[in-house]
Amino acid sequence: MDATKLDLKRLERTAWRSYHQDGMWDVFIGLLLLSAGISSIVGSDWLNLLLMLGAAGVMALGKRFVTVPRMGAVQFGPERRAKNRKVAALLFLTVLLGVALYGAAVTNLEVLGWQPNQGTLTTLAMSLVILVIFGGIAYWLDFPRMLLMGLAFAAAFATSRLLDTPVTFLIAGGAVLLWGAALLVSFVRRHPVPERGGSHGS
């Protein structure tokens, strides 16, 4: 019985990792980085919000119309679903925290006696927070590549603040987006849409 459970967990982990080989997470993070750079150049926080929502829409549509038709609407076990709910909650809180910190930084707002600035210590501390958050998501999602995206995000944030330029966001975002696009193309080629009436997925 234990061996059977172990095999099922191993199969589920393999299916889970295959489900994330479509590159959509990479595309999403790349678009977020690009949105940060573009909105900084334009000088509009509203534009950043709209671009972030657009990036989320691209990921949702990609999963719906690219991944699911090829992999199927995979139903994972209760342990995996509980893990996903925790990740979703963490991701939501992370977005709220990120928006709050970003808003405080660009408006020089004092938060509980602390005022973020472009100092090296504050920048490195916030970059470390970004990296830890991405690392936590990578662990909970069992998705090691997320940590690399976190490194790109933290590096772009730190260098943009220290060098006072949004170009680093554009460079990091372009690199991550191109990598995600390459993974997406490879995924589509390796997993053609099953013929109508055939059996696929679980």
Helix-strand blueprint:
Elements: H1 2-19, H2 24-42, H3 45-71, H4 78-107, H5 120-141, H6 145-163, H7 167-190
Description:
The protein has seven helices and no strands. The protein has helices at residues 2-19, 24-42, 45-71, 78-107, 120-141, 145-163, 167-190. Mean pLDDT is 78; it is low at 198-202.
Short description:
It is built from 7 helices and no strands.
SSE class = mainly alpha
Question: What's the number of helices?
Answer: 7
Count of distinct strands: 0
Radius of gyration over C-alpha positions, nearest whole angstrom:
19 Å
Strand content: under 5%
**Low-confidence sequence ranges:** 198-202
Shape: globular
State the helicity in percent bands.
over 70%
Largest sheet: none
Give helix and strand order, one letter per element, not per position: HHHHHHH
Distance between the termini: 22 Å
Chain-averaged pLDDT:
78
Question: How would you describe this structure in keywords?
Answer:
single chain; mainly alpha
